[in-house]
Design brief:
This protein is an all-alpha fold and about 100 residues long. The chain is built from 2 helices and no strands.
Length: about 100
């Protein structure tokens, strides 16, 4: 049984690509969780405004979701571009 990867490729023989695949997996988790937190923040803010219950609790939830989403999403975006650049460089050098 071959290992499950985000890209669907088996890199068990190449440690650099295996490490890159691990980073790609964590990037995927970070991007999904960060985006979900921003979605939750937007939904809670809109519901608070529409229902007229924009109080300290709602504001705190929105603020916490935005901060946590930024903490998850910012590094994930940076590493995402790094992994894409490394893949592009491998293709250009004919290593794929």
């Amino acid at each position: 049984m071959e290992p499950m990867t985000i890209s669907g490729r088996d890199y068990s023989k190449d440690p650099v690509r295996a490490q890159r695949e691990k980073v790609r997996t964590w990037v995927s988790y970070g991007m999904r969780s960060g985006t979900a937190l921003f979605g939750i923040a937007s939904t809670v803010l809109i519901m608070g405004i529409l229902l007229g219950t924009l109080n300290g609790l709602i504001t705190g939830i929105v603020l916490a979701c935005i901060i946590l989403g930024s903490i998850a999403l910012a590094p994930a975006m940076v590493f995402h571009y790094g992994v894409k650049a490394a893949d592009r460089e491998d293709r250009a050098a004919g290593r794929q």
